[in-house]
């Protein structure tokens, strides 16, 4: 019995990739290529959780790396480690976006310009979460405002109390906080426990307390703008 030979029309249909069940080698290569993240976010550890949630929310093919949030205690480490990381991953990604504010660093934008890397705009995470206009209003209302985010509130003992040495020298607290009059908790995903903790911190300092549930604020919209800009450039 002779084997059945596919008709010319059948062969052409599959060779040309016209049947949706099959893909040409070019299509397979393109699909495999698209599976590889072409964009890298390098985030501050204090923004990593929310940045990952934003990535997942929008379904972006983005890889995320983060530097330790406690680098803020020695800001020069932020720029040094960013420079080192950007050198190491050179040419591995189509685009890199740094999710950091200026955060007291020394010439962070100079380092990023050296590597031709974009940064989400904003001086710090409080302004990103609060929004440019609203943050300016809050500062105009009371210059002596201490801000908390979800991350900083959860890490308050480690980042603030221990980070400033107040666990060993509590008498230094007035020197650090003497000019503050108000605490504003800019929450992302508040819980009763977190709100109560923020209130307790304000009470212990003798500050007014305010809670604003801002969610991702302008951190999300600014990242969306940067990703939209990428899509426009590649179309």
Question: What's the topology here?
Answer:
Blueprint: H1 8-15, H2 25-35, E1 39-44, H3 48-58, E2 62-67, H4 76-88, E3 95-99, H5 108-114, E4 118-119, H6 125-130, H7 132-141, E5 145-148, H8 150-154, H9 156-162, H10 173-177, E6 182-187, H11 192-205, E7 208-213, H12 217-234
Parallel strand pairs: 1-2, 1-3, 3-4, 5-6, 6-7
**Structure summary, number of beta strands:** 7
Please, how many domains?
2
What is the percentage of strand-forming residues? 5-15%
Helix content: 40-55%
How many angstroms separate the termini?
A: 54 Å
**Average pLDDT score:** 85
- In DSSP terms, counting alpha (H) and pi (I) runs of 4 or more, how many helices? 12
| Widest β-sheet, arrangement of strands | 2-1-3-4
Pick out the low-confidence regions: 1-33
| Category from helices, strands and their pairing | alpha/beta
What spatial form do the alpha-carbon principal axes imply? globular
Q: In angstroms, what is the radius of gyration?
A: 25 Å
CATH architecture of the largest domain: 3-Layer(aba) Sandwich
- The CATH topology label of the largest domain is Rossmann fold
CATH class descriptor name of the largest domain: Alpha Beta
Main sheet: strands, sense, barrel: 4 strands, parallel
Q: Output the helix-strand order.
A: HHEHEHEHEHHEHHHEHEH
Fold and architecture overview:
This protein is an alpha/beta fold. The chain has two domains: 36-125 and 217-234, 3-Layer(aba) Sandwich (Rossmann fold); 132-213, no CATH class. The protein has twelve helices and seven strands. The chain has helices spanning 8-15, 25-35, 48-58, 76-88, 108-114, 125-130, 132-141, 150-154, 156-162, 173-177, 192-205, 217-234; strands at 39-44, 62-67, 95-99, 118-119, 145-148, 182-187, 208-213. The strands form two sheets. The protein has a four-stranded parallel sheet with strand order 2-1-3-4, with helices on both faces. β1 (39-44), α3 and β2 form a beta-alpha-beta unit. The N and C termini lie far apart (54 Å). Residues 1-33 have low confidence and may be disordered.
